[in-house]
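Reminder to self: tokens first, then the designed residues, so the page reads top to bottom the way the pipeline ran.
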């Protein structure tokens, strides 16, 4: 619980068998996470068994793709506050606090990894990915006249249940473009959001 609100942490998994169990355990050790939703998106052999050793709720999504996995995870979450993340070592469990402290004032909190000093050594943020995310973020910022955006691809983000309920029926993307689609829906519904370095 975070200030009386139930916290769900959700992710989709495909190739994180070696890191997933420790990450889930670390999330529960924060003492603010009420549930972890792990969507097995045709994950590598052994992933199911690793998740089964934890307190996470495991669901299976047969439609292959980042977007399909996360759409299923969001559907299964029961929290008032939902945090999207990845179990691949890009983020630490304690990073959720960076998002939660803004949840009183914003409906959505987006992470950004375009600040060099905030990028961990094992994060998946190569040169092309970093600048590609930055370019698309600036394009969206320009086209929609929105607040500051610097990373449309960061998968660490927080969304409140009330906002998710407003945009959930409009999701269409099943691939890796789900993240930018979500941001566009947030902007189009004039939802109050903030972007913070992770």
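Designed residues (198 positions):
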């Amino acid at each position: 619980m975070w200030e009386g609100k139930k916290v769900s942490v959700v992710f989709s998994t495909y190739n994180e068998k070696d890191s997933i169990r420790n990450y889930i355990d670390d999330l529960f050790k924060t003492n603010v996470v009420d549930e972890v939703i792990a969507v097995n998106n045709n994950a590598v052999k052994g992933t199911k068994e690793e998740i089964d050793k934890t307190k996470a709720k495991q669901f299976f999504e047969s439609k292959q793709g980042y977007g399909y996995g996360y759409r299923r995870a969001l559907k299964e979450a029961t929290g008032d506050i939902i945090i999207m993340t990845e179990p691949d070592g890009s983020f630490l469990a304690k990073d959720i606090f960076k998002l939660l402290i803004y949840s009183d004032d914003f409906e959505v909190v987006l992470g950004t990894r375009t600040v060099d000093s905030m990028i961990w050594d094992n994060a998946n943020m190569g040169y092309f990915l970093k600048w590609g995310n930055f370019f698309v973020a600036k394009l969206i910022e320009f086209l929609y006249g929105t607040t500051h955006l610097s990373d449309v691809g960061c998968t660490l983000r927080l969304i409140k249940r009330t906002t998710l309920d407003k945009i959930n029926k409009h999701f269409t993307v099943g691939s890796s473009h789900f993240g930018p689609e979500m941001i566009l829906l947030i902007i189009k519904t004039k939802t109050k959001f903030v972007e913070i370095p992770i």
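The chain has a mean pLDDT of 89.
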